[in-house]
Amino acid sequence: MPTITWFNIPAAETERARAFYEAVFAWTVEPFPGMESAFLVTTGGVDGEIFPRARPGEAVTVFIGVPSIEEYAARIERAGGVVVVAKRPVPGRGYFTIFEDTEQNQLGLWEDDSTAG
Fold first, then answer.
1. Please, where are the H alpha helices in 3-116?
2. Which residue in 18, 30, 41, 113 has the most C-beta neighbors within 10 A?
């Protein structure tokens, strides 16, 4: 069964966001290797990242792990959703896509694949 596997928290000031989440929830927040101004967030459950906000109003995104982005993108479209960001690689880790549900909420799909490039 697909489950939530990751989250992204956009922030105007990533250091301030880092301090907030460490202070409030005692999450471990460390520099994200290879990503300037981004932080890896370890919660003890689902992990994620804090990264620089790209645009005003950018929302938190949760990612749902699936075995095949193509299969689930087709399911989303049959159910009335829309793929808004096509499948993209994260080198050495996997693939993601962003979709919008029938209520205009944006979520992500994640497919593990260590050969992604």
1. 14-25, 69-78
2. 41
